[in-house]
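User: Could you check the structure of this?
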Amino acid sequence: MGLLDKQFDDGNIVLTSLEGVLNWARLCSLWQMSFGLACCAIEMMAASASHNDIMRFGVLPRPSPRQCDVMIVAGTVTLKMASRVKRLYEQMAEPRYVVSMGSCSNCGGPYWEHGYHVLKGVDRVVPVDVYVPGCPPRPEALLEGWMRLQEKVRDFSLVKPQNGKPQNGRA
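Assistant: Sure, the predicted structure tokens are below.
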């Protein structure tokens, strides 16, 4: 169901849960911390431009990890950068989400086999909620990934774990 679980005939009384209201508010105002590392960062910036306008989803770029809900890792993560990515992730407030954008951040990209300095996927240092494939992915793919993230936020529950697992499928 949506935000409104039950509406009475006269239209003045609406019943819903506090969790439903909080999730609705959170999914409509996810603030991003951009972590652009390579060519995927250009496509991430293009998603914020007027043609795609990711801000219509309530996305607001913020400079500090303490103000952010979502970290977008776009591009090649080197082994030296991995500790910085993890530190920034740990500085974010709960609930926090990670979007891995592009082949390099998803699995090391074209550099994983012969590059000794490339992390073989950002999910080795931080838990990833949404993977956006491509090399580099188009802005439309990032928008699709953002809608998938909003679905996860809509189903988030602070009280009841799903199937005995922690939230967001994280172990």
